[in-house]
């Protein structure tokens, strides 16, 4: 009887959490142990409605092994017919006092980072999103070979409020 109650409670809770996230169109994470400067993380959100607009986010989970207050990324959106849009992005990961800006309990913090707002995907077909770390130390030309402390990289697409 007690087991059945907890199972029912778990099902009701998970259904409630899913309904709170009605704007989500795509949300996926890739695990990272050490993020090599040549490693590209690819997401395949599939075909998207060409009549809608979307907000795009990059989600980063980091732990205390991440030694920097910011994060530089190079992103690409590849359109079905070959067009590619590239961006170099910088995000603050910590406050000036060293406190992580992300949310979460314990060592791992999650940051939901704005990528693009009110984006449309006009071409029919499959889109791809690629994310690469572009961190380097001050005064050095070469990038950081292996970036530690990032545990997961995620990509999220939400319906825009401008529908």
TrEMBL record:
State whether keyword Signal applies.
yes
Keyword Secreted assigned to the entry: answer is no
Q: Which residues cross the membrane?
A: none
Q: Which InterPro entries match?
A: Motility-assoc_lipoprot_GldH
Keyword annotations for this protein? Lipoprotein, Signal
Show the Pfam families listed in the entry.
Answer: GldH_lipo
Signal sequence range:
1-19
Name of protein:
Gliding motility lipoprotein GldH
What species was this sequence derived from? Autumnicola musiva
Query: What does UniProt list as this organism's lineage?
Result: Bacteria, Pseudomonadati, Bacteroidota, Flavobacteriia, Flavobacteriales
